[in-house]
Amino acid sequence: MATLTTQLPQRRRRRVWTESRVGLTMLIPGIGLIVIFMLIPFFYSIWLSLHVEIVGSNIPIRSVGLLFYRHLFSDPIFRGVFLKSLENNGIFALVVVPIQTGLAMFLAILVNRQGAFVKFCRTTFFLPVVFPMVLTSLIWKAILAPGPAGMLNAVLRIITFGHFSPQYWLGNVHLALPSIILLSVWQGTGFQMVIFLAGLQGIPPSHYEAALIDGANRWQLFRDVTLPGLRNTTIFVVMVTTIFSLQLFDQVYLLTQGGPLNATSSVMYLAVSQAYVANNVGQGAAISVVLCFIILLLSLIQRQVLRERVD
Amino acid sequence: MAVTSTVAPLRRRRSRRSVPWGAYSLLAVFTILFLFPVYYLIIGSFETPSEALNGIQAAAPTHLTLANYHSLSQEFFSSTITGSLRGFYTVSTLVSLIVVAGGLVVNSLAGYALARMKFRGHRTLLLLVIVLVIIPFQAIAVPLYYMLSGMRNTVVVQALPFIGSAFSIYLFYTFFLNLPPQLEEAARIDGAGPWRTFLQIILPNAKPAFASVAILSFIQIWSSYLWPLMMTSQPNVYPLSIAIGNLVKQQSTPNYGEMFAFGVLLVVPMAAFFLVFQRWFIRSVASLAVKG
């Protein structure tokens, strides 16, 4: 088992036709589209990040070298926002990745059995995956609404027998990011759960039987058979979740606009607001390029980690 | 507790004797937690604005009303200035249709050529696809916005960047790589050319791959928000997600009852599709990790 992002095929199957013209005809539409709409924009973003362009004006485009990259790390005003966004992405990833991966594995183990009730639970856990983030944000905006009318506030008040005082979840500097994390975990866990479920079903039953013959108890079965059997699945899930969490945008834009006081600003939110709202194309592009390289670096690490196992 | 369930399917005889109450009660707790927001969305869509945001009572309303759906149906054919619900639906459906149908054609062909054809630059192209799988759309959204700004406020531009997909090409590629080559050899002996072989021999054998790619790209495009946000500013080309997003962003006294009803309408096509083809949805997500 390998992940889809990393490995070149090890074996070359015999190809049936040698007519290169047919092959190229089949390739051109698909490859052409991804070159035009992915590869060229990628290089264009590097070019944009090295130039100043005032959109809609006659001022000529001017090369500025690494100015926009220097801004990110040394401009007294901008640096703070950028580093805060990077930090938020980091916190988001550090909290979401272990919680979501752990919860997904736990739920996958729970639903890896037969029965109508279990099937219902499986459907329930996966259902939020088909919910667009816009809708998830809408539902959670109501749940997280401030004051005693908000659902979460009301529920917490009942659970604590009236000791809990209502919070302004999305408006509080300390609670806004955890709130965003909460709704993101609700929406995303089912996806990872299904991947773990596939991983669990890929563990040969004979491994469990052998361990049982050796007198292993339940904990030992989990530690010595299930966990090693899920190793590559876990690496895959961790990497995908990390890369997803670096793209954090929709829920921030919809619910907090990066606030309060940049407490929920993310790298992607900053890139879009620079390029699109502030009309600062070069700066937005520079942030995109940094994001791209962080993601490529993480993918290379994943590839390395996976390869260690193969050797 | 978790450990019990790991081994349960293998020791079915044992689990038949004793019902794993511990696992079941944990499942029940998590199911309630996961289901509650969905329940709140649905029940809230039948409540008046004051009831839909009313603490715990919102979850157990005293009476239900169709008023929200009624006022939405009024808006269904409303003016072209504010946009109509029918318009939002049409845009979302058209964009999804173009991306899913167009994507199946171009990406399956490219994946097939990479898996089975011999030509110069084969390795380079394969590497290109793999690198592009890693780069997320978000990271190139800004430059793409400047490249295509001349096409703003059209339906086509909302679909265009997503038809060709490195990810789908890769999924098709791995699938075709694992198909037995004997299939094509037999067809070739019968005198079929590569195109006929692809249509008549490969297609019928590749239904699972087509279903996976169709479902994954449908989930993605129906939910997409950032791209239409950048590319549309006129209500007559808004997809559903932008129309709802505009309601969510409004800070002043949101009417949750009506927003919930709108939200239900957004998710119903997807949820119905999911409940009917659940097995395929789960299989297509599961295929992400196992293939390759």
Q: What do you see in this structure?
A:
The complex is a heterodimer of chains A (311) and B (292). Chain A has 311 residues and is mainly α. Chain A has one domain: MetI-like fold, CATH 1.10.3720.10. Chain A has 13 helices and 2 strands. A two-stranded antiparallel ribbon of chain A has the order 1-2. In chain A, helix 1 crosses helix 13 and helix 3 runs antiparallel to helix 4. Chain A is globular and about 75 Å long. Chain B has 292 residues and is an all-alpha fold. Chain B has a domain of 175 residues: MetI-like fold, CATH 1.10.3720.10. Chain B contains 17 helices and no strands. In chain B, helix 13 crosses helix 17. The N terminus of chain B is likely disordered. The interface between A and B is large, with 127 and 127 residues.
Q: What structural keywords apply?
A:
heterodimer; A: 311 residues; mainly alpha; two-stranded antiparallel ribbon; B: mainly alpha; MetI-like fold; globular; disordered N terminus
Topology:
The complex is a heterodimer of chains A (about 300) and B (about 290).
Chain A: H1 20-49, E1 51-52, E2 62-63, H2 67-74, H3 76-111, H4 116-126, H5 133-143, H6 151-159, H7 176-201, H8 205-213, H9 218-229, H10 231-246, H11 250-255, H12 267-277, H13 281-310
Antiparallel strand pairs in A: 1-2
Helix pairs in contact in A: 1-13, 2-3, 2-13, 3-4, 3-7, 3-10, 4-7, 7-10, 8-9, 10-13, 12-13
Chain B: H1 2-7, H2 12-17, H3 21-44, H4 49-52, H5 67-75, H6 85-116, H7 122-134, H8 137-147, H9 156-163, H10 166-177, H11 182-189, H12 194-205, H13 207-223, H14 226-231, H15 240-249, H16 256-276, H17 278-290
Helix pairs in contact in B: 5-16, 6-9, 6-10, 6-13, 7-10, 10-13, 11-12, 13-17, 15-16, 16-17
How would you characterize the largest beta sheet of chain A? 2 strands, antiparallel
> Termini separation of chain A (Å)?
14 Å
Overall 3D shape of chain B:
globular
Tell me about the largest β-sheet of chain B. Answer: none
- Give the domain tally of chain A: 1
Oligomer: heterodimer
Regions with little confidence, pLDDT below 50 for 5+ residues of chain B: 1-8, 11-16
- Fill in the CATH topology of chain A: MetI-like fold
